[in-house]
Design brief:
The complex is a heterodimer of chains A (about 80) and B (about 190). Chain A is mainly α and about 80 residues long. Chain A has five helices and two strands. A two-stranded antiparallel ribbon of chain A has the order 1-2. Chain B is about 75% helix and about 0% strand. Chain B is built from five helices and no strands. The chains are: A mainly alpha (about 80), B mainly alpha (about 190).
Chain lengths: ~80, ~190
């Protein structure tokens, strides 16, 4: 089981750069980059809520569950 | 959100740590110089070992032969060496703190090392005093030689401090593990 992060897709749809998203969400650009590449252990709900507010989307637009796929080192978690 | 350096340590805290580390390192240098200087003074200058022997080994002596003084001085190198090793660990520890690396593996290792030196001193101190009493009275006639073993409140304090520092190091190691775990969340 793995959770895939489709943040880059949403950024492209909204024509927004990672830096702008990072500034508006309140986390570092490095963390946005790690999130895009799926190299984080989890996402806090308040971060997820801030991303959804900025990108005007739902969590399901950013996070996708793909059963049976090889783990790529990230699982969405709560804090 | 306030701007933070890449390692997340605010500048004000970083500067405070640097000042604290500098102060402690000055104290360490003073402590090392006093430790070595006083030991040399006691055992190399004739006539000064008597008060040390009385304080540590609880033995009254009038005169001390040269070979006794040499042996006593050499034996004193053990606790002095441990004390200097402890100061060296402390120096390295505050070197890490000066760089705001409070929870680094090296800082935890140095803290544990310092704690172990303190604990070792707590156990070595009574043994040192006991053997010193034997050394300074060995030339006496049989039946008048002494072996004095004492465990002072200072030794107990060292034991307590060393144990507490070890416990703190363990807690900090766990805190570092939790922090690293949390760092994986955005």
């Amino acid at each position: 089981m793995t959770i895939v992060v489709n943040l880059d897709v949403m950024l492209a749809r909204r024509k927004m750069r990672s830096r702008e998203l990072a500034e508006r969400v309140g986390i570092t650009e490095q963390n946005i980059s790690l999130l895009k590449s799926g190299k984080v252990r989890g996402v806090r709900f308040d971060t997820l809520a801030a991303i959804c507010e900025v990108l005007q989307c739902q969590p399901g637009d950013i996070l996708e569950y793909r059963p049976g796929a090889a783990p790529v080192g990230n699982e969405a978690g709560d804090d | 959100m306030a701007d933070l350096p890449r390692d997340g340590v605010p500048d004000e805290l970083r500067q405070r740590l640097r000042r604290l580390a500098l102060l402690v390192r000055v104290l360490i240098v003073i402590g090392a110089l006093l430790t070595v200087g006083c030991t040399a003074w006691v055992w190399l200058v004739p006539g000064h070992a008597h008060s040390q022997v009385k304080a540590v080994a609880d033995v009254d002596i009038d005169q001390m032969a040269l070979h006794t003084q040499v042996l006593g001085g050499l034996w004193t190198l053990l606790p002095v060496g441990i004390a200097l090793l402890a100061l060296q660990r402390l120096w390295r520890l505050f070197g890490e703190y000066a760089q705001a690396r409070v929870f680094s593996q090296r800082a935890l290792t140095d803290l544990r090392g310092f704690a172990r030196c303190v604990l070792t001193l707590a156990f070595v101190s009574p043994v040192y005093g006991a053997l010193l009493s034997v050394i300074v009275t060995f030339d006496r006639k049989p039946g008048t030689r002494e072996l004095n073993l004492q465990f002072t409140s200072g030794d107990f304090a060292l034991l307590l401090i060393g144990a507490v520092l070890l416990a703190i190091a363990s807690v900090m190691a766990e805190a570092a593990r939790v922090a690293e775990d949390n760092a994986g969340f955005v």
